[in-house]
Amino acid sequence: MPESPEVDALVDELGAQLAGRAITDVDVLEFRVAKTRARPPSSLTGERLTAAMRHGKLVDLVFGDAHLVVSLGRHGWARWRDGDGDDAAAYDAPVTGADDADAGPAPALATVEFDDGRALEFTDAGGWVSLGFWVVDDPADVPAVAKLGPDPADPEFSRADFDQAVVGRRKQIKAVLQEQESLAGIGNAYSDEILHTAKISPVAHAAALTEAELGRLFDTTVGTITTAIEARRGIPIDQLKAVKVAAMRVHGRAGETCPVCGDTIRDFSFASTTAQYCPTCQTNGEQLPLKG
Q1: Distance CA 13, CA 164 (A)
Q2: N or C: which end of the chain has fewer CB within 10 A?
Q3: Which pLDDT tens digit goes with each residue over 151-179?
Q4: What pTM was estimated for this model as a whole?
Q5: Cβ-contact 3, 46 below 8 angstroms
């Protein structure tokens, strides 16, 4: 799943490459991608991109007073296709890892063409369509944007913001970290990394965390996300997935050695997916259940 560090880098590249460029055509190959049926993406034809922004894990392409808000869902991404008809797969090399549905190039479900001859293809590799486009006057008109909690990458993000999202919650802390209404931009991968660095069990209830654990978790949440954003800056968008996978210390590394204590990193079942943790660092040696 694309998370805030990779989406931030994607937005940076799109803003730098497309500022001032006008849309010449929009081709939505999967009708379920268009969420504002009365205002389809094709209504932006002729408009020039003025800015690119991020809201949590969502992309916001600004065209004057209109916004094309893109939810990448679980397996969505974007890739360039140049004007000479080259196979777009060359821009989206396969990556294997915990966040990828399959190895191999993902199908493009929507293509936005610009007046410099290039096209931006939006892909979705999941088993269902999770990619979504909204054309709105205000990003807050998109429910997924309107409900977002504070973003740990925001310089104004404070310990008070964190405590409001976390303290007293009778919910597993990994679920709280991934809950976009509580904290924006964090998904399965970075929540694993945050909890491992903070030495906290992913299944511990937020309400049970001590003041010392909360302090570590706040520092680690901010540090992990802001460091990752800086590390991804300037990485071409076709390389971001591979760079993310390579940077993970525990996520996607079941069976490998923990870089901190030397124990074996293990899988456990979480919601509808699989996550990773270190028993020695995080659960006092207890092995969490893995459904199989």
Answers
A1: 33
A2: C
A3: 999 999 999 999 999 999 999 999 999 99
A4: 0.92
A5: no
Q: What is the mean predicted confidence (pLDDT) over 9-26?
A: 98
pLDDT of 100 higher than 50: no
Question: What are 244's two structure tokens?
Answer: 């993310």
On whether the CB atoms of residues 69 and 140 are closer than 8 A, the answer is: no
Query: Residue 203, Cβ neighbours under 10 Å: how many?
Result: 19
All residues at 6 or more sequence positions from 226 whose CB lies less than 8 Å from its CB, including other chains:
152, 153
Cβ–Cβ under 8 Å, residues 278 and 250: yes
Both tokens of residue 196?
Answer: 């491992």
Q: Domains for the chain: give ranges and CATH numbers.
A: 4-146 (3.20.190.10), 159-282 (1.10.8.50)
| One-letter amino acid of 289 | P
| Degrees, nearest 5: CA angle 172-177-181 | 105
Q: Where are the alpha helices (DSSP H) in 48-171?
A: 143-146, 159-166
Instruction: Enumerate long-range contacts of 206-215, CB under 8 Å, 24 or more apart.
Output: 206/166, 206/167, 206/168, 206/169, 206/170, 206/171, 206/172, 206/173, 206/176, 207/167, 207/168, 207/169, 207/170, 209/166, 209/173, 214/162, 214/163, 214/166, 214/167
pLDDT tens per residue across span 253-281: 999 999 999 999 999 999 889 999 999 99
Residue 244 vs residues 42, 50, 80, 233, 255: alpha-carbon distances, Å: 33, 28, 19, 12, 19
Dist CA 61 CA 80 (whole Å): 15
Q: End-to-end CA distance of the chain, in Å?
A: 22
CB atoms within 10 A of CB 141: 14
